[in-house]
Design goal:
One of its GO terms (cellular component) is mitochondrion. Pfam families: TsaD. By secondary structure, this protein is an alpha/beta fold. It has 13 helices and ten strands. Strand 1 and strand 2 form a beta hairpin. Zinc ion binds next to helix 6.
């Protein structure tokens, strides 16, 4: 018989009196699972901001064969890697499932097949152990990573620039659970643009990282002749009459980069062209991001306490420097820029466990096993399908 289970709703009501402040006082230990794209990740994190373990199984070799993330191949790899990631995360943290306070997983957004792996793994663990289950929004987790990693965490409200393979958004984090999307890309995500340009330039794939870091590395190499005296330049997206548009765009820059690379390379791509075009593209993409964030800060006038840069592209050193320079140069007074460490900027499960901890401390008791996976999920619709009975009143 199929039992529609909302395990934590009834328990929440029963134990409200006993546990009303328990999560706020006790150190919580949560296992997080993440598999929304091409990394199978498991981590154990505590509410006093200790990452006891963080395991990330990457799929660079598979992505290289398919020229990007292949949904079925990525799903299969997650099915292979997730059990190993979980067992390693538990053993490195030196905990058993019984010692945990909750099991957390990415419920969206992401690739549906990939999301099913962390979802069913977490639900099976929660069902067999009787532990609370928490489904986390992947982009909220990127946004809240700075609260885990920063000694002096940014206060709300803060801006968060989420730059990954699937997203390019400037988001106003008004509180832990309330977000407003201020700007988004009208076409490609910036990470996708980095990956496409790296492929266009035939940059050598790395077995330890994706293509974005390879492009960054080429852009940082000193230019070779004839480009040492005359660097290449690319036009900034959404300039001219679109200068005041509050949006990001990368498709025009991608086409311009392709034209430039073809013109410079002629019949054969050389390292001189690879370095020069990589640098021109990175400069234009990052300048565009910094200019548009500055436009939002100047025109919208939100009293933000900081800018948190997160998502895979947030590990780019040039982007970090340019964002810091932009934040330092704001005439009404500098705002601090925050960058999670690189391993926590790219996809990881520590951020999923951490976000679950914040939600538990904020009154969540646990979620049903039958909430839908949300492959598309706006940060503005956060947890709108979680029944009120899942929260302590
Ligand atoms: O957040 P993330 O790990 O996964 C997604 O949710 O998409 O971001 C992955 C994206 C990829 O497009 C990757 O090439 C890009 O972030 N990326 C970078 C760098 N590191 C990762 N792009 C530019 N520079 C980097 N250092
Ligand atoms: Zn991500």
């Amino acid at each position: 018989m199929f039992v529609r289970s909302i395990p934590w709703a009834a328990q929440a009501r029963r134990s409200r009196a006993i546990h009303s402040t328990a999560h706020a006082q006790r150190v919580l230990r949560v296992l997080g699972l993440e598999s929304s794209a091409d990394d199978a990740c498991a981590a154990v994190v505590t509410s006093n901001r200790k990452i006891l373990s963080s395991v990330v199984c990457k799929q660079h070799d598979i992505n290289r064969q398919y020229g990007g993330i292949h949904p079925i191949a990525a799903h299969e790899a997650h099915l292979r890697d997730m059990p190993r990631a979980i067992s390693q995360a538990l053993s490195e943290a030196n905990v058993r499932v019984d010692d945990l306070d909750a099991i957390a997983y990415t419920r969206g957004p992401g690739m549906f097949g990939c999301l099913t792996v962390c979802t069913t793994s977490a639900r099976a663990l929660a069902a067999s152990s009787g532990k609370p289950l928490v489904g986390v929004h992947h982009m909220q987790a990127h946004a809240l990573t700075a609260l885990l990693t920063e000694e002096k965490a940014p206060g709300f409200p803060f801006f968060t620039l989420l730059v990954s393979g699937g997203h390019t958004q400037l988001v106003l984090a008004e509180s832990m659970s309330k977000y407003r999307i201020v700007m988004t890309t009208v076409d490609n995500a910036v990470g996708d643009a980095f990956d496409k340009v790296a492929r266009l330039l035939c940059l050598p794939p790395s077995s330890t990282s994706g293509l974005g870091p390879v492009l960054e590395e080429y852009a940082a190499r000193p230019p070779l002749p004839p480009y040492d005296d005359a660097p290449l330049r690319l036009p900034l997206p959404l300039e001219g009459r679109n200068k005041d548009t509050l949006a990001f765009s990368f498709s025009g820059l991608l086409s311009a980069t392709e034209r430039l690379a073809k013109k410079e390379a002629g019949v054969e791509m050389s390292e001189a062209v690879q370095r020069a075009v990589a640098r021109a593209f990175q400069t234009a993409a990052v300048t565009h991001l910094a200019d548009k964030v500055r436009l939002a800060i100047d025109t919208l006038g939100f009293p933000v306490k900081g800018l948190v840069v997160s998502g895979g592209v947030g590990s780019n050193k040039y982007l970090r420097e340019q964002m810091k320079a932009m934040c330092d140069g704001i005439p009404s007074g500098p705002i601090p820029a925050y960058y999670p460490p690189i391993a926590l900027c790219t996809d990881n499960a520590a951020m999923i466990a951490w976000t679950a901890i914040l939600r538990l401390q904020d009154g969540l008791v646990g979620e049903p096993f039958d909430l839908p996976i949300r492959k598309k999920w706006s940060l503005e619709d956060l947890y709108d399908d979680v029944p009120a009975s899942c929260y302590r009143s």
